[in-house]
Amino acid sequence: MLRILQALRGTQDILPDNIYKWNHVESVIKELCALYGYSEIRTPMFEDTKLFLRGIGDTTDVVAKEMYTFEDRGGRSITLRPENTAAVVRSYLEHKLYGDQQVHKLFYIGSMFRYDRPQAGRYREFHQFGVEVLGASSPAADAEVINLAYTLFKTLGLKELELHINSIGDYKCRPIYRQKLIEFFEEKEDQLCDDCQARLHKNPLRILDCKEDSCRRASAGAPKITDYLCDECEKKFEAVKRYLAALEIPYLVDSRLVRGLDYYTNTAFEIQYPPLGAQSAICGGGRYDGLVEDVGGPSTPGIGFAVGLERLLLALEMQKLIPEPANRKKVYIVTLGEDAVVEGIKIQQHLRDKGVIAEIDLQDRSIKGQMKQAGKNNAEYTVIIGANEMEKKEAAVKNMENGKQQDIPFLKVSDFITGSSRQ
Ligand code: HAM
């Protein structure tokens, strides 16, 4: 096959047969967000590259290795968004949403782009549902966003999830921990993978969640961030845990959880579905109290998360939790000749106006071909208009379930079909 006739590596089409799964998940998301008081925000798919360099951090894998960056025809450096937190913050600042001193609770659903090695659950174009809460510093906001993610999965019926939480401190206490960690790993530098050796002095926390066996072994016994939190950070972390307990949300404190983006402070969390293997994180998030200032805005606290929708759908499929689409009444209209089509499309319109799914042949096929199509469509009723029917101004309406056929005046067909649905 011609290469141009294949979707690019790491991208996929969502075909009509599968779209109901996405619609199901998205409608549960939208209902839940309304219930929690979150409003939808839509931002562009690409932004000025500098936004991500500054927002996400240039030593992160996402920025250093995974961005789709190109120069546009005007010579500007553009990047397809690898994540949406930085872009939502840009929009919040551009439109001065902070001016009203209110907490802004936002959510989004959309494509993100990362140039990574594709595998099950990891794509180059993928979709996230995310939320960002801007202007709320209380640990109650941390508990609320975790609760929203947790309730989404519970509402969808998912089981066997693990919520991992950690606190990675703030600009006051993290530097002390960072130095301790560098000292610890300097002794074992030769045991670290090449990436981690490069990270050692730039971003030593990332060594803790490296998946390489040698780095995992080397990090056994490493100092824990939770032992170095300042009083304020410790108090906040305790409050988050207390609120989660009050909500009866089970969690594991995971001192290795550091997350891959530089903007996090205090609470970091992930929700994992272990049967997905290497790509088991279906949701990741945390607090980012420095980000708004880092990209040039007034000091504003923030917290949020993003769920990978492909991974969520894989988990839902594994647990058979996606309901088949609701079967609304279907009608297929079979006609012979142009005059019959005139009557047929009028009946079709009456049915559609009443919310009944109705279709008519668009290929000038024989009556036999059209009847076959009615079967393929799983039609509940077939409305047949041939020469006899045109003469009597009545359609032959066949109930495809029991085979019963009745002649109904053209003008009454839609009433007959919708009326019979109530019987
Ligand atoms: P992240 O951990 O980079 O965080 O991504 C969040 C989720 O997106 C992951 O847990 C995973 O489910 C999904 N995901 C990431 N990369 C891929 C991929 N290549 N293929 C498929 N799914 C993927 C963020 O993006 C942050 N912006 C989350 C956040 C919002 N933090 C605060 N607010």
UniProtKB/TrEMBL annotation:
UniProt keyword annotations, A-Z: Aminoacyl-tRNA synthetase, ATP-binding, Cytoplasm, Ligase, Nucleotide-binding, Protein biosynthesis
Compartments, record wording: Cytoplasm
Molecular function in Gene Ontology: ATP binding; catalytic activity, acting on a protein; histidine-tRNA ligase activity; transferase activity
InterPro entries named among the record's database cross-references: aa-tRNA-synth_II, aa-tRNA-synth_II/BPL/LPL, Anticodon-bd, Anticodon-bd_dom_sf, His-tRNA-ligase, HisRS-like_core, HisRS/HisZ, HisRS_anticodon
Reaction catalyzed: tRNA(His) + L-histidine + ATP = L-histidyl-tRNA(His) + AMP + diphosphate + H(+)
A GO biological-process term: histidyl-tRNA aminoacylation
Residues reported to bind L-histidine: E83, N84, T85, R114, Q128, E132, R259, Y263, Y264
E.C. numbers: 6.1.1.21
GO cellular component: cytoplasm
Domain Aminoacyl-transfer RNA synthetases class-II family profile as annotated: residue spans: 1-325
Family named by the database record: Belongs to the class-II aminoacyl-tRNA synthetase family.
The protein's assembly and partners: Homodimer.
Xref: HAMAP family: His_tRNA_synth (MF_00127)
Stated name of the protein: Histidine--tRNA ligase
Gene source species: Dialister invisus DSM 15470
Protein encoded by which gene: hisS
